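Task 17 of the worksheet. Students: predict the tertiary structure of the chain below and write it out as structure tokens. Keep your answer in the requested format; marks are given for formatting as well as content.
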Amino acid sequence: MNFQGFLLWVIEGGGAGWVTYWLMEQIGKNLNLSADVKRYISLLLPIVLAVGAYWAGVGVGVTPAPATLVEGLDALVAIIVAIISSQAVHGFTRLRVKRV
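Model answer:
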């Protein structure tokens, strides 16, 4: 996998969520965090990682830079909605499996 492929995996392929949950397992067990704090970190960190990967790609030239402010905002909103949607689906399916 090249750098562009890695960035796309983080942005679109679930990589931001995977990294977040891996970090929560590695670091979270050493920190005394409440369940609410862990949940907020798990909601916000993938967004930060995905948006950061997008702008890293723009910065190094592997992702096209938005031509206008509106295009940049569109890209950010699309990334954020995709991350939140995937978290909602993941939570719904995981919770549904546990309930059955």
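Marker's comment: The chain is about 80% helix and 0% strand. Residues 3-99 form one domain.
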